Amino acid sequence: MNEPHINRRVFLLATAATGAGLAVGTGASPASAAAVPGGFPDYTYRRTLLEPSKLKYNPTGEIIFPCIRGTAGRVASPLGKYYLYYAPHDAPGGICLAYGDSLEGPFTEYPTNPLVKNVWSPHYSVSHVSSPHVLWNEDVKEMWLYFHGENTTTRLARSKDGITFTYDKVVLSSSMMPAGTTETSYARVFQHDLPTRNARYVMLFMLNNTTNHRDICWGWSPDGRSWTFDQTPLVRHSDVGAVNIGGPHLLTRNGSAYVVYNSDKESGGNLLITEVGNDFGRRDHLGLFHDSLSGAPDNGRSAAPSFGTEGGVPYMVYEAGERLAGAIAVARG
């Protein structure tokens, strides 16, 4: 495995940027004008898609962790071309859905949210469920929902239509990680072949421990249900000069794989990027991926990105604003 490497030029932009983002109707800041590592698009805010105050299901006044999925060729008679999953975090949480025909919106709230609640007898009864990530599982032609509740446990539910889910099993818990682990949550799962590990899927997730510094960890699986987890972090907070990192997403480009993740607002509130390589053997920390807007809706924090393409145009749907006080927004590359 290669030794960790930080692109200092780009990393300094990430650590120095404290919200000098691209404002709507203005030119780019020096940070946002820099080339994005890996040749990825420079995403620019377009509009806010969901605000808690405008939602019928709004138990806590906050929503987090968007996941955007196309329905074409996957769901019979879908409500829209795109399904946008999200959730409140604080108790009781609840896995929610909005639907629309464009990645730039508008999106309509599903009228009987939440799809999944914090009590699902006889499988569990917890304080909250949150952080929905839906994978289109091509192998079985189903939407697979990964979500946490409590913060120590990630679960799997499965659906043919992306709305009605059947409970499957626990796929990750803090007991599967080193002693002292206190949280294993905010998981996203991707189809990514790792032949040397007999794996077809990878999971990225956030781990916290008794030091109260959050890192990005990972695991691999032949079927998306039974997992093996690396016992050392994929990206440590200290690797990138942050107090906490989370919200990881896997991207592939030009024959390599990258992990995009957010730093906490104390550490800049931006999205950072690390190249891990197709075999997850690299650890090249490349620095700034997306500079959060200093003004609304980001207010110095962008997090938990989900990516899609419409008509050849790349989009990023993300959590915009201070944690537990934000909205869901979309940016275009």
UniProtKB/TrEMBL annotation:
Top-level taxon: Bacteria
What Gene3D superfamilies does this protein's entry cite?
Glycosyl hydrolase domain, family 43
Which InterPro entries does the protein's record reference?
Glyco_hydro_beta-prop_sf, TAT_signal
Record bears the keyword tRNA processing: no
Query: Quick one: signal sequence residues?
Result: 1-33
Keyword set, alphabetical order: Signal
Entry keyword annotation includes Signal:
yes
Q: Name the SUPFAM superfamilies for this protein.
A: Arabinanase/levansucrase/invertase (SSF75005)
Coiled-coil features, chain-numbered ranges? none
User: Would you tell me the protein name for this molecule?
Assistant: Secreted protein
Species the sequence originates in: Streptomyces beijiangensis
Q: Which classification does the entry list for the species?
A: Bacteria, Bacillati, Actinomycetota, Actinomycetes, Kitasatosporales
